[in-house]
Design brief:
By secondary structure, the chain is an alpha/beta fold. Helix content is about 30%, strand content about 35%. About 45% of the residues are buried. The site of FE2/S2 (inorganic) cluster has 12 residues, from loops.
């Protein structure tokens, strides 16, 4: 297990910065992207996250979904009090941020397969642009419940129409793209041969792709969730196996995912008790 160096950069990242929302975009029926000016978070790696403070409500971890020209975006699905409140905020409203925190995805060239499901596609959107920056072939597969829950599909379609990526969508009900799961499409792509697989989505998806990558000996990284409170490696609430998600993750490579063992099977909840995921 690694430790953080407590230096000036650490203190700067963990100091809460009060800022105002610059732009708000509705992505689908229950999901919103919020954009804020933040110089520190623009120097981030896809897969890293921000602790976002909603005044008077809570502080929650959110993956960075966009970075450009001093503006940072996070994407949030409104499923609880804090996330619904965040979704309701408007340009000019005040929030606080700490970060960028944690370890992100490794950026490398070659033939990359990006597989995302649901709100898990948020950090992968940022990853797509970073991989395009270093060249190589980028294949993107997003899976959603149905058409009304799709996010970033138009944006990926635009990149695809310019020949920058290959992009496929799976919906469970067949209302858009393939009537399939993201795993179905990903397994076909893996069969054709890829150099690296990146995953973020439901843990059942991560687990199935992990098994496939182990079988085919393909490098893989996945972003996983933990129940976060401090976001700085102190409280221990985000522990998965021998790792702290906020400090050692949220992105883990194939060998660490195997070491964690419980991926897709169980996770510690808010009470600290292990809860089954199946
Ligand atoms: S959230 Fe406190 S140790 Fe990770």
């Amino acid at each position: 297990m690694s430790v953080y160096p407590i230096d000036r950069a650490f203190l700067d990242r963990h100091r809460r910065r009060i800022t105002r929302i610059y732009e708000r975009r509705s992505e689908c029926v229950d999901t919103v992207s919020l954009y804020i000016p933040d110089g520190l978070a623009t120097d981030s790696t896809p897969g890293q996250f921000l602790m976002v403070w909603i005044p008077g409500v809570d502080e929650i971890p959110l993956s960075i979904s966009y970075v450009d020209d001093g503006i940072v975006g996070v994407t949030v699905r409104g499923i609880g009090e804090a996330t619904r409140t965040l979704c309701s905020l408007q340009p000019g409203d005040t929030i606080g941020v700490r970060g960028p925190l944690g370890r992100g995805f490794t950026i490398r060239g070659g033939k990359s397969l990006i597989v995302g499901g649901g709100i898990g596609v948020a950090p992968l959107r940022y990853l797509v642009y970073k991989l395009l920056d270093v060249g190589g072939d980028v294949y993107v597969i997003f899976g959603f419940r149905d058409r009304s829950h799709m996010i970033f599909v138009e944006e990926m379609n635009r990149l695809s129409s310019k020949g920058l990526i290959e992009f496929y969508v799976a919906t469970e009900d067949g209302s858009y793209g393939f009537k399939a799961t993201a795993y179905d499409l990903a397994s076909s792509a893996i069969d054709e041969g890829v150099d690296m697989v990146y995953v973020c989505g439901p843990e059942a998806l991560t687990r199935k792709i992990l098994m496939l990558c182990l079988e085919r000996d393909i490098p893989m990284e996945a972003s996983v969730e933990g129940y976060m409170r401090c976001g700085m490696g102190i409280c221990g609430s985000c522990v998965r196996g021998i790792y702290l998600v906020c400090r050692d993750g949220p992105v883990f490579d194939r060998s660490k995912l195997v070491e964690i063992g419980e991926i897709g099977l169980r996770r510690r909840g808010a009470s600290g008790i292990m809860e089954p995921l199946l």
